Amino acid sequence: MSTWKRDFGSGLIVLVPLIVLLLVIGWIYRHIASIPLISTLEPEWLLEPVVPLYRVVIALVVFTTLVLAVGYFMRTTLGRIVEARIDESINHIPALRVVYNASKLAVETALSGTEDLQNPVHLETWKGIRMTAFKTGKKTRDGKLVLFMPTAPNITSGYVIEVEPERVTDTGESVEEAMTRILSAGFAESAHQVSVDGDLIDGMGEGSTDARVAGDAEMTDAEAADADRTDPDTAP
Fold first, then answer.
1. Which residue in 48, 95, 109, 134 has its CB near the most CB atoms, within 10 A?
2. Residue 231 belongs to some domain of the structure
């Protein structure tokens, strides 16, 4: 039964992400293909089965061209001035500025490409207990490392912490392995982990319980002997 459960769990770990990925790709594909403006660029001779694919290709080409054009414009002095004016204007809007700044920060973080962002580390929060965090590539003015510690299994929330560098140790694993462990709540198999059989744990628990009971019995006998030696009523 233990082997069957492990095989079933391993299959779910492989198939569920693929199914979710296919569903997301299909959702994006359908929404891009249904953009109204793209239909105006369709030639009349285009076959009906090819129309959705044609719309997606045209949308991607237009989007890529727009991104490159805006990026080239941002390299100029006028582009930087326009960006600063846009940021300043949106930051005066209470609700939209949160979404705007969060989206901008997420894109900047994803495209930064620094090595520190791909470096999972261990942080000993309490004595003998360590947690997985990720370097952000930033430091405070007093030299502390800025880390992001995600929650499990929802990595979209977590804690931004500042810690002394000597309290941080590298995990020796890739960011994919660390993320897989967090997303699976520790159940995913990894080359840096050792599986422990449940029967072995139960056996160890029973043995430990027996040992504790035996130890308590020995202590009780010893305490009784000490009481007999020190009790004046029982002394010869």
1. 134
2. no
Which pLDDT belongs to residue 94?
A: 85
CA 131/CA 210 separation, integer angstroms:
32
Residue 42 lies in a domain: yes
Question: Which residues have CB under 8 Å from 199's CB, separation 6+?
Answer: 2
Phi, psi for 132 (deg, rounded to 5): -90, 130
* Same domain flag for 7 and 93: yes
Which tens digits make up the pLDDT trace of 40-97?
Answer: 767 777 777 777 788 888 888 888 898 899 999 988 999 899 989 998 998 888 888 8
Query: 126-161: per-residue pLDDT in tens?
Result: 888 888 888 888 889 998 989 888 888 777 778 888
Structural domain boundaries, residue 31? 2-112
CA angle in degrees (0–180, nearest 5) for 10-16-20: 160
154, 172: one domain = yes
